[in-house]
Write a structure and sequence with these properties.
- The structure holds 2 protein chains of 2 kinds.
- By secondary structure, chain A is of the alpha+beta class.
- In chain A, 40% of the residues lie in helices and 18% in strands.
- The relative contact order of chain A is 0.11.
- The chains are: A alpha+beta, B alpha+beta.
- At the A-B interface, helix 5, strand 1, strand 4, strand 5 and helix 8 of A face helix 2, helix 7, helix 10, helix 12 and helix 13 of B.
Chain lengths: 340, 787
């Protein structure tokens, strides 16, 4: 049928020309609307020679109607997407190099270092224990084999309360309580705040943090002590450290040691930081004195143990390069806000 | 303490050994060496020479023109020393010589050439004397390097005194030499001691001692006919290298013996002190010590007296009146041992710590006193052979330390060390250190030498130390343990503390601070924070820091004040200890508290107050799934706001408080800022049981939101409003949200009530009856819908 071919061609041409959503909608109304050309043609198809031919025309018109509808909606959708894409390209490129506007809180430097060291010991089966800041002479001295009149008990070193108690001068004050709580075998670390009646300067504060550790079992030896110290310090500093023990005297250990590590700044060559010796004194330690074990209710025939005291404040200063110890208790946001 | 290697070599042959290695070994096995000084290293090319001619410099009042003969040549030297004169033999630094930092070159001095320098003792570094040039005795050969005559070369090392605290035997060169002998395996020579037994029939020194337990031993001797006034150069150089100075022969000898044996001694002029009484005085009195200072002697001080007159503070310092002078020709010698604790206490009271007192503090071996007297006599006779012993060795030995002997299993040493130590090595070490030793069937029977038996060595663990420090800790292989591993649970309070910190830092962007445990009443007064009445320190560093804090907030407020100009808004917190008075038994009531301070120049007081409330509430919800409640409360501290103070409770337990800062205190920090504070008891918070997570199946049916706008009454709290709404007991009422809040004259609130059923879709009719009931009950309270 000529008119049918003409209709198809007209639609095809107009469809090709429709460039936006509105034109397409017009086209849809013109051909597929209530009075649309295809709709009308379906209602009154003309020029059919027979009933069969009429059927054929209707079939063809229906195909045309479906195809035209589909083409219009596909093209409409394509045009809509293109419009979105085009609009998108109109947005500016935003500058992510602008300064961050994050509000950030911060941890006390001691909290950070303490968590780090605790995690290392926890991974090796040590419990982490709390202890009081106010204690008594028994726990702070007597149970640690520090005799009466020992210089450590002097008023110059120890803060006494009017009720006769003391502010703990070292985390070792917790040893007795912890031994009594757990008995042997035992592995524990106990961080805490300590107090010494010292004049304050860039290297000394009267309030500072330590972390004590103990390990008690059958056959604990100096060899084990060196092993655990090496592991812990290598983890803390994130690289293998060389350690050495020297004799050191502390009443609650026998033998007692000063543990030095290879200077981290010069690597042992000698520099101003280590007094040109290549070594830094880091951690007093030793085999727990039998009197201390006995005070703690531990059978000294069966058990031996080691103990060490780590200066957390000192470690934080070394690790973060804090030059003045007073920064730590200053409460200044210029200091604190850096430790995010 | 300074140790001279030359002196050590008197007792151990260290020939052929590297001194640096020896000193390092000493650090690793005995005590820390802090510094090493190479004496004489920068003194070269200096020879003996005679001043053959001396005339005054024509252009200078002080300078002399010298002609100095070194035996080979005569040198022109311009010299400013007052004692420069013809005839004397001097130390001549010729051209090219090194005198400390000075390289000797030809120079012009006031128009005359000088080709060398005559040196003073100070310039040579062998004493502090720079009053004139050094003079050698008349018979000294010329042209000899002065190092062949004077022991200028020496290696001196400084041992950290603290590391010798428990080693009274190491406070003299002989004890240190014993260590070197063991460390090197070379023999320790016996000390040359004058034999005093031939004088046993001479009269004794009159010594009387009170029975107070403070005198352990007093050993004395008197010597007369002493002519020599000054000690030898060798002795003076050693004293100087070890930090003392030459004074006169008798004083130098006491110092020398002290540096050699560790035994302090005192030399009295026997013309002034011929008898000894050792006693205390009932009352304090003034006394002039030989350093010229007038001191008040406390009653606990033990005094040495003669004829009732105090002549020395026992173990600390002698008196000026009885000291050795130019005319002294006889000496009464004290070599004594006193109670170390008392010496330390008195020396602290006097503020006078001397070489003697710091040795006595260490509890010296009382056996030493007699040896020291014999050594003194030996050295005095060597220096002045005419000196005569005029009394017998007189010895009052009050307190002897019991000999110490015990058994040690060799297996114990191995077990403690973690290595198998060869028996032969144990034996060599202990014998070398002076221990008596029997070794049989893996068991050691040790006898502790007297110099280690006053407090140092008494148990098998001490023997482990002796053996292993010489074995070398570096030679022990580090090994892990065979101990069983057990799971460890974190302590609940510790866990909560860390969670609280995380929440405050990560979620609310607060800053964790650390502050001191005591009040600072002076600084806090400026902020209007009065000192609390709490437990006190009896020896605070400053009076204003004596009270232990009962609240953690004042110190955080001080931090707030210090930070107020750094940024407009911030929050600080601390988890720390407070001492909330005393418990019934008098012990400190130590609590762990969380303190938070919010500061804002941009938010209003109400906003900040509620923000802090939200922070506190979220701790309860997040860490225990408990809804904290906030109820009006009376302020405990004057710095809390009188109206805007509430208690914080959870699980029916009061946990702390939340407040705005009182206006007066706020004015003192920043009148334009808002400041809110809160304190929580961490122990009570820890004890609060965590609630289980209550899961609710998500609703399948649509719910209905119903908004109510209500006119508010003054002073009406939202909680009361909500209680009324909930009081209508509508089974479908789930959430109530505040949509709008108007605070003005006609205060109003818009609430959104969310109704929801798990069984069905709700209809408006179903909830209408409940809403009507709510409105009725609200009406009873005088609360009506906004028109």
């Amino acid at each position: 049928m000529d008119w049918l071919e003409e209709l198809k061609a007209a639609f095809a041409q107009e469809f090709a020309q429709a460039a936006d959503g509105a034109a397409l909608e017009q086209l849809r109304v013109k051909y597929l609307g209530k009075n649309g050309r295809i709709t009308k043609a379906l209602a009154e198809p003309g020029g059919a020679a027979s009933a069969e031919a009429l059927l054929e025309i209707r079939k063809e018109l229906n195909t045309l109607k479906k195809a035209a509808g589909a083409e219009i909606s596909v093209k409409a959708e394509q045009l809509r997407q293109s419009a979105i894409d085009a609009a998108e390209l109109q947005t500016p490129r935003y500058d992510t190099s602008l300064p961050l506007r994050l509000e950030k809180g911060s941890y006390a430097p001691i909290t950070l270092i303490q968590r780090e060291v605790e995690a290392i010991f926890e991974s090796m089966g040590f419990t982490v224990e709390d202890y009081a800041e106010v204690t008594d002479e028994y726990n702070c001295f007597e149970a640690l084999n520090i005799p009466p009149y020992h210089p450590a008990r002097d008023m110059q070193d120890t803060f006494y309360l009017e009720n006769g108690q003391v502010l703990k001068t070292h985390t070792s004050a917790a040893q007795n309580t912890i031994m009594r709580k757990y008995g042997a075998p035992l592995r524990a670390v106990f961080p805490g705040r300590c107090f010494r009646n010292e004049a304050i300067d860039a290297n000394h504060d009267n309030t500072f943090f330590q972390m004590e550790g103990m390990m008690i079992d059958r056959d604990i030896s100096i060899s084990n002590l060196i092993y655990f110290m090496k592991i812990m310090l290598s983890e803390v500093f994130g690289r293998p450290v060389k350690v050495r023990l020297r004799p050191g005297f502390f009443p609650f250990v026998e033998p007692g040691f000063e543990l030095d590590i290879n200077c981290l700044i010069c690597g042992g060559e000698g520099c101003p930081s280590c007094g040109h010796s290549g070594w830094l004194e880091l951690c007093p330690c030793g085999m727990i004195h039998p009197n201390v074990l006995r005070h703690g209710g531990i059978d000294t025939e069966q058990y031996t143990g080691f103990a060490f005291g780590l200066g957390l404040t000192r470690l934080a200063m070394m690790k973060y390069g804090i030059k003045d110890i007073r920064d730590l208790n200053s409460g200044s946001l210029k200091v604190l806000a850096q430790f995010v | 303490m300074l140790i001279s290697m030359n002196w050590i070599k008197d007792f151990v042959d260290l020939e052929g050994l590297d001194v640096a290695a020896l000193v390092n070994q000493f650090t690793l096995s005995t005590a820390e060496v802090e510094d090493v000084y190479h004496k004489g290293e920068r003194i070269t090319g200096i020879v003996t020479a005679r001043v053959v001619a001396a005339e005054n410099h024509p252009n200078s009042k002080k300078l002399h023109l010298l002609r100095v003969d070194d035996g080979g040549a005569v040198h022109d030297v311009v010299c400013g020393a007052p004692n420069a004169r013809a005839g004397i033999i001097v130390a001549l630094a010729r051209l090219g010589a090194q005198v400390g930092d000075l390289a000797i070159k030809e120079v012009q001095l006031a128009g005359y050439p000088s080709r060398g320098m005559c040196c003073s003792e100070a310039e040579l570094g062998i004493s502090a004397d720079h009053t004139g040039i050094l003079e050698f005795p008349e018979n000294t050969p010329l042209g000899v390097d002065i190092k062949e005559i004077l022991p200028v070369d020496d290696v001196v090392f400084e041992v950290d005194n603290k590391s010798l605290t428990n080693r009274p035997d190491l406070w003299g060169h002989y004890g240190i030499a014993r260590e070197f002998s063991v460390l090197t395996g070379r023999a320790l020579r016996a000390l040359d001691v004058f034999d005093l037994t031939p004088y046993e029939n001479l009269p004794a020194v009159a010594i009387e001692a009170e029975d107070g337990g403070l005198l352990y031993r007093y050993t004395s001797i008197q010597m007369k006919n002493i002519k020599r006034k000054y000690s030898t150069s060798k002795m003076r150089i050693r004293l100087f290298y070890c930090g003392m100075r030459g004074i006169n022969l008798l004083t130098d000898l006491t110092n020398y013996v002290m540096l050699e044996l560790g035994q302090p001694m005192h030399a009295f002029d026997a013309a002034k002190v011929d008898r000894i009484e050792v006693r205390r005085f009932a009352e304090a009195f003034p006394f002039r010590t030989l350093d010229g200072a007038e001191r008040t002697i406390p009653p606990e001080a033990l005094m040495i007296c003669s004829g009732g007159q105090p002549v020395a503070i026992a173990g600390i310092m002698g008196g000026e009146a009885s000291s050795i002078g130019d005319d002294t020709s006889s000496v009464l010698l004290e070599s004594a041992n006193f109670d170390g604790v008392n010496v330390r206490r008195v020396s602290q009271k006097l503020g006078l710590r001397t070489d003697a007192s710091q040795r006595y503090e260490k509890t010296l071996d009382p056996e030493l006193t007699a040896t020291a007297v014999g050594r003194f006599a030996q050295l005095l006779r060597e220096a002045d052979p005419g000196a005569e012993v005029t009394t017998r060795l007189t010895d009052v030995y009050v307190k002897r330390f019991a000999p110490i002997a015990f058994g040690v299993e060799k297996s114990y040493i191995d077990r403690m060390a973690g290595v198998n130590v060869p028996e032969e090595q144990i034996e060599r070490t202990l014998r070398g250190l002076g221990f008596g030793l029997e070794l049989a069937d893996g068991r050691l029977q040790v006898q502790v030498p007297s110099w280690r038996a006053t407090k140092d060595v008494s148990i098998p663990a001490d023997i482990v130390e002796e053996v292993m420090r010489v074995y070398g800790y570096d030679n022990i292989e580090p090994l892990t343990t065979k101990s069983a591993l057990r799971p460890v649970a974190p302590a609940p309070q510790k866990l909560l503390r860390e969670q609280v910190k995380d929440c405050l830092v990560e979620r609310f962007c607060l800053h964790e601070a650390h502050t001191y445990i005591w009040y600072n009443s002076v600084r806090w007064k400026k902020l209007g924070l009065p000192a609390e009445d709490g437990l006190r320190l009896s020896n605070a560093q400053a009076a204003q820091c004596s009270v232990l804090r009962t609240s953690i907030l004042p110190s955080l407020l001080e931090c707030t004040d210090n930070n107020k100009n750094t940024r407009p808004d911030f929050g600080l917190f601390e988890v720390g200890k407070i001492i909330d008075g005393a418990k019934p038994d008098g012990a400190a009531n130590e609590r762990e508290a969380l303190g938070i301070v919010l500061f804002s120049k941009t938010a209003g007081e109400k906003e900040l107050y509620l923000r802090l409330r939200d922070i506190i509430a979220s701790l309860g919800e997040r860490l225990r799934r408990v809804q904290f409640t906030f109820a009006a409360a009376e302020p405990r501290y004057p710095w809390q706001h009188p109206k805007n103070t509430v208690s914080i409770a959870g699980g029916g337990q009061e946990l702390g408080f939340l407040s705005l800062l009182a206006a007066r205190n706020r004015q003192l920090i920043d009148g334009k800022a808002a400041i809110a504070v809160a304190q929580l008891d961490m122990q009570l918070f820890t004890a609060l049981a965590a609630q289980p997570l209550a899961y609710r199946v998500p609703p399948k049916f649509p719910g209905i939101n119903y908004d109510l706008s209500l006119l508010l009454l003054p002073e009406l709290r939202y909680a009361e409003l909500e209680a009324v709404l909930r009081g209508a007991e509508c089974p479908y009422l789930r959430e109530i949200t505040v949509i709008d809040l108007y605070d003005g004259e006609k205060a109003s609130i818009t609430l959104r009530l969310a109704f929801q059923s798990d069984e069905k879709s709700l209809t408006f009719e179903e909830i209408k009856q409940y809403v009507d009931e709510m409105l009725r009950q609200l009406g009873e309270k005088g609360i009506y819908l906004k028109a």
